[in-house]
Amino acid sequence: MLFRTKEKSDYKLALQIYNHISGRDVSPFYIGKVLKLEKTFENKKALLMEAVRLCGEPDNKDKLYVVSQCYVLAGAEYRPQAIEYLNKFIDCGATWSGTPRQKIDMGDYIADQLTQSKAEIWWQLAHAYEGEYQFEDALKAYLTSLSIDNTYTPAVSGAADVYVKMNNIDGGLKFLREAKKSKYKDMKLFAASKIEELREKKEKWLYIQTASSEKEKGKC
């Protein structure tokens, strides 16, 4: 049950509620109000929906960010809404006023936080599609995430898993072999590990298929 408060539309408060629930830093100015509001709702999901309400009509990038992230954090029940608002956020560029923009030296490459943030948004969209069994859309979104940031291993993992769910393990293996050609060490290691995972799944599938075939022959 969601208990509505008397709070009017307040994007800044909504952002701080999301920050609190997602484990991010909360502004000292808002922490008291957020903690007071938290006691008003029976669970975190209800508080997230209050944050969505406080955004009013999400008519700019900042509000779209908060609304989309609240729906993502709210879980399976709100996947359709997450998909809707992630797409709207992406249409606006997939960035907001708080998007980090630093560049970090990772040793063998320079990580661009802005690029990583965009890749993560596309990954979230792909993951939501996957949860709704929209595998074609999920695969496209995972591949888009990877095209934005070719060091983003969650996109590689997600795409490989979707290939398996589409009964196309060979397609997944082909995709991972290409990913393994990356010039980045972390990506090479990750792709190699994922290849072994898919090979094991293929072996189990072949074993089950062979056993099933032998069983059918025995009935004849």
Number of strands: 2
Mean pLDDT: 92
Helix content: 55-70%
Strand order of the largest sheet: 1-2
Strand content: under 5%
Find the structural class using helix and strand composition.
mainly alpha
Q: Give the number of helices.
A: 10
Could you tell me how far the N terminus lies from the C terminus, measured between alpha carbons in angstroms?
59 Å
Rg, rounded, reads 21 Å
Give the CA-based shape: globular
What does this structure look like?
It is a single chain. The protein has 10 helices and 2 strands. The protein has 220 residues and is mainly α. The chain has a two-stranded antiparallel sheet. Helix 3 runs antiparallel to helix 4 (61-74) and helix 8 (153-165) packs antiparallel against helix 9. The longest helix is centred in the last third of the chain and has 35 residues, at 185-219. The N and C termini lie far apart (59 Å).
In short:
By secondary structure, the protein is mainly α.
List keywords for this structure.
single chain; 220 residues; mainly alpha; two-stranded antiparallel sheet; 10 helices; 3% strand; globular; disordered N terminus
